[in-house]
Amino acid sequence: MKEIARFSTVLFLICLISAGMLSLINSIAEPRIIEQRKLEESRAIKKVLPQEAGSIEKVEKDDLVFYKAKDSEGNLIAYVFIASDYGYSSQIKTVVSLSPAGEIIDVSILEHRETPGVGSGILEEDFLSQFRGKNINRQFDTITGATISSAAVIDSIKAMGLEVLKDAE
C-alpha cells in the first residue's frame, strides 16, 4: 500500500512539474505566435493589394472586419478582407482583394491544414487564377477530388465579399 502511495505521489509531482513547465513555455511563446500571425496577415494583405494602393484603412462594423485600399489621391480602389470557412479537415483562411464594383482583384490562401496532395490543390495557381478579374457573383469551379475544400474557399469568398460590398456602401 505504501508503495502505491509513493508511486502516486511521484507521478503527481511529475505531472505537476510538467504542467508548470508547459504553462511557462506557453506564456513565453504566445505573444510571439500572435505577433507572427499578425505579420503573416499583413504580408498576405499587401500581396493581394493592387500596385497603385497608397493607403489602407481598417474598417470594423460589428463582427465584420475589412480594409479599404485607396490610391495616392484618396480614391477607393479596393476592399481587402479575410474570408474563412471549414474545409474537409480544417478552417481555410483566404485573403481577397475586391474592387468597389465587385470584381475580384486577387486571392491568396492565408492558412489551411487540408490533406496534402488533395485538399492542398486550393493553393495551385490553376484554382486561384479563376477568381482574378471575375465578378463576385459568378460561378466558380471546384477541384475534382477536393470538392469540399475548394467549395469552402469559393463559398467563403462569395459570402464575405457580398457582405463587405453591402456594408461598405
Descriptive labels:
single chain, about 170 residues, alpha+beta, five-stranded antiparallel β-sheet
End-to-end distance: 74 Å
- Strand order, largest beta sheet: 1-2-3-4-5
Q: Provide the succession of SSEs.
A: HEEEEEHH
Query: Would you tell me the overall average pLDDT?
Result: 87
SSE class = alpha+beta
Radius of gyration: 22 Å
For the biggest sheet, the summary is: 5 strands, antiparallel
Number of domains: 1
Percentage of β-strand residues: 15-25%
Helix content: 40-55%
Q: Can you put this structure into words, describing what you see?
A:
This protein has helices spanning 2-48, 125-128, 147-168; strands at 55-61, 64-70, 76-86, 91-98, 104-111. The chain has 169 residues and is α+β, with helices and mostly antiparallel strands. The protein has one domain (49-168). The protein has a 5-stranded antiparallel beta sheet, with helices on both faces. The chain starts with a helix and ends with a helix.
Give a topology summary.
Elements: H1 2-48, E1 55-61, E2 64-70, E3 76-86, E4 91-98, E5 104-111, H2 125-128, H3 147-168
Antiparallel strand pairs: 1-2, 2-3, 3-4, 4-5
